[in-house]
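User: Hi! I'm working on a homework problem where we have to compare a predicted structure to a textbook description. Could you give me the structure for the chain below?
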Amino acid sequence: MTLTFILAIIVIFVLAGAVKGATGMGLPTLGMGLLSLLMAPADAAALLIVPAILTNVIQFATGPRRGAVLRRFWLLGVFTILGTLAGAWTLGGLDSHFAPALLGATLLVYGLFGLAKLQFHTPARLERWLSPVMGLASGILTGTTGVTVMPVAPYLQSLDLDREDLVQALGLDFTLSTFALAVTLSMDFTALSDARVALASAGALVPAFIGMELGKRLRLAVSQATFRAGFFAALALLGANTLVRALPL
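Assistant: Happy to help. Predicted structure tokens:
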């Protein structure tokens, strides 16, 4: 492992942490996309496990309405876990041959979705039935791409939640999906139990937290609209690049 390679990983975690600090999401999403340019998706997911879990736990636990959010979205979380396990164990998980292409497609679609500023509204009467469906679909994508974002993020945004509730709900679902992903990686990806991988993932907390602090300050200096447009454009380009590289020539 060269110094250049290590520095590239540090920069990636700082960038991903900055997005997390500025928007409340995006660390695993951007992290997976960028790390997959340097390594296999399973290796990228293993590096992201500790920062993703800890930052999402903090995001959920430090909010003002933990109990209310947990009672409302526990079913979404349960089905996200089930979907993640199903995606990993029945579709080949992150080691499957189509994982890179699916990762690229997910990033591209989410990036374009964000750039288009599409807004949906989910009636309250449908939430009870849609939450398990959205959780399961998101979990399946998590189990095969390492990214929990589609369709759960647009779905939660469609519920017209208070900003704090939205951030906490995203933190809850991301936490549960990442825990489930860690379980699948520990069983199917033996390197995750390697002390060096665990140490590297823990070490990634430092640049990730530095990035989060920078992101919080950036949030005060740059308009959210400008920052989010840049974030979604970067995701779309990154997804397109990942998808093209994964397709057979």
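For your comparison, note the following. The CA atoms of residues 34 and 199 lie 20 Å apart. The chain has a mean pLDDT of 85. Good luck with the assignment!
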